[in-house]
């Protein structure tokens, strides 16, 4: 009987510590084992086993270059399923439906996952003759897409450089920005405008406008983007206004104090 009670106590402690690890890392972008150990006062060997168990189960990802650990989208998915009264995906979908109906272009919501852009929602049928990255679950580079650049603009230049060093930077078209300094200049323009542009940087004949979406923690949780076959100065002015209105509204619904 005593042995059974001991096992139950140890199991509860292990779960408690695993949750502490997720919550602690969730408050920052990433942490090393040493940093975690300073926050969570447990045996280093036990902490390491717990962290790597979370990695194996897909809740944490390790950056092999820095040795730091960060949350994955699996934790985001669990949270979305658990918090029924805050149905973020429903809010996102209704925002995209409204945006698509107003601008007549494909509207998408994408998130950052392991230094890539992952499409979670896409509204609007492709009526054009080219292939466009509009399918849910499709992954694209952060550096060559409007949504990716919009997301990156919410980080400091130092954080962007760290992410840049972990990306496989390559020219996808002749317009792709592969020079870091030119890319940072483009990010600066994105911050000034409030939205990012992709002028055939990821795919020829595809023009996109993207804006970041923030939540109650003042952190970027994703980006909304609009895709089309053209983007004249007048079209940019019109669709960017609609996009910014939608991204700010969604950010506010998710608890962000919109300025």
From TrEMBL:
Keyword DNA-binding applies: yes
Keyword Transcription assigned: yes
Keywords from the UniProt entry: DNA-binding, Transcription, Transcription regulation
IclR-ED domain: residues covered: 74-256
One Pfam family here: HTH_IclR
UniProt-recorded name of the protein: IclR family transcriptional regulator
Alphabetical GO biological process terms: negative regulation of DNA-templated transcription
Xref: SUPFAM superfamilies: GAF domain-like (SSF55781), Winged helix' DNA-binding domain (SSF46785)
Residue spans crossing the bilayer: none
Gene3D superfamilies the UniProt entry points to: 3.30.450.40, Winged helix-like DNA-binding domain superfamily/Winged helix DNA-binding domain (1.10.10.10)
Coiled coil: none
Molecular function (Gene Ontology), one example: DNA binding
Residue ranges annotated for the HTH iclR-type domain, each copy included: 12-73
């Amino acid at each position: 009987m005593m042995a059974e009670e001991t096992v139950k106590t140890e199991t509860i402690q292990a779960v408690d510590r695993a949750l502490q690890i997720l919550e602690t890392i969730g408050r920052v972008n990433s942490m090393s084992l040493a940093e975690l150990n300073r926050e969570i006062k447990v045996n280093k060997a036990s902490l390491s086993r717990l962290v790597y168990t979370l990695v194996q189960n897909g809740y944490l990802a390790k950056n092999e270059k820095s040795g730091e650990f960060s949350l994955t989208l699996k934790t985001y998915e669990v949270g979305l399923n658990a918090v029924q009264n805050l149905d973020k995906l429903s809010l996102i979908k209704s925002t995209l439906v409204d945006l698509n109906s107003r601008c007549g272009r494909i509207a998408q919501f994408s998130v950052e996952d392991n230094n890539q852009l992952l499409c979670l929602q896409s509204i609007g049928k492709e009526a054009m003759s080219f292939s466009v990255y509009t399918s849910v679950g499709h992954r694209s580079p952060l550096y060559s897409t409007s949504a990716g650049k919009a997301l990156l603009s919410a980080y400091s230049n130092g954080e962007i450089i760290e992410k840049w060093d972990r990306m496989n930077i390559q020219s996808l078209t002749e317009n792709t920005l592969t020079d870091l300094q030119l890319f940072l200049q483009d990010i600066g323009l994105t911050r000034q405008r409030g939205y990012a542009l992709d002028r055939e940087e990821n795919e020829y004949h595809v023009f996109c406008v993207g804006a970041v979406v923030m939540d109650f923690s003042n952190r970027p949780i994703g980006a909304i983007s609009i895709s089309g076959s053209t983007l004249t100065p007048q079209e940019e002015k019109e669709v960017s206004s609609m996009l910014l209105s939608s991204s700010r509204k969604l950010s506010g619904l998710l608890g962000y104090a919109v300025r």
